[in-house]
Structure formats: C-alpha cells, structure tokens
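Checklist before submission:
- one chain only
- standard amino acids only
- sequence pasted in full

Submission:
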Amino acid sequence: MQIQAYRNTAAPYQQPATTAATSTTSATPVSASTVTLSNEAKQLSQVDQIPQPHAPDLSKVKAGVEQYAHIQATKMKYQVASDMVNIAMGTNDGISAPTAYYLSHNDSARAATVGQMANQQQVNTLQAYVDASESINEWA
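Returned file contents:
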C-alpha cells in the first residue's frame, strides 16, 4: 500500500467570493476601502447602549486600609518602646523584630542599648559577687 500526496491545482483563497444579497443601493462603485452596511446592521446600531457599570466607591475601603495601617504602625511603635523599657530596666528576654529593625537603622539608639546592656551585665556580675561573698562572710 502506497500513500500518494494530495495535489490541489486551485490556488488557495482565490475562489470567487459569494456576496449576500442586500437591499442597499449605492450610487458609487464599491471598492476595497468602502464598507456597506445592511439594513439589519443599521437597525442594530440604533439600539440603546447597554449601561456600563460604574466604578465602585473605594473611599470607605481606603479609609479602612489607612486606619489598619495606622493601627499596625502604632502597635510596632508600642512594641519598640516596650522593648526599650525592658532593656533599660534589665528585664528583657530578647527583642522583637520591630525593635531590631529600629535599632539597625538608628545608631544612637543602638549605642544606648548596647551601653545599657553592658551596664546591666556589670550589675548582674556584681550581684553574683555579693551573693557569693555573703556566704563566705557567714563562714568567717
């Protein structure tokens, strides 16, 4: 069994176009740049336009987002202030992410924090010395 190639001798897209019968009459000859509309197309173009939906009013949403952003910023500021007070009092168990960000971008606050933590370390060391020397003094 052999497969034979399909051969079409007609040039593609060169067949005569069939035109639909329209009731429009034109005094000028039809050319490639002329468009004629049928009566149905003219009637459809005269139909009322479909109303387009209006853009939603986002002012309430915008206000809510701005309020949320304000609340979050206030919470972060409170967290930073709380961590800084805990560092100053020597009761810190670490710092939060907002405080770390604040300290990484504020040289004077970072220097003050490091100084305070060094002072707190000295106080803890001296307190350990006092506790140890009290037990020695009890034996003497």
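Reviewer check: The two ends are 119 Å apart (CA to CA).
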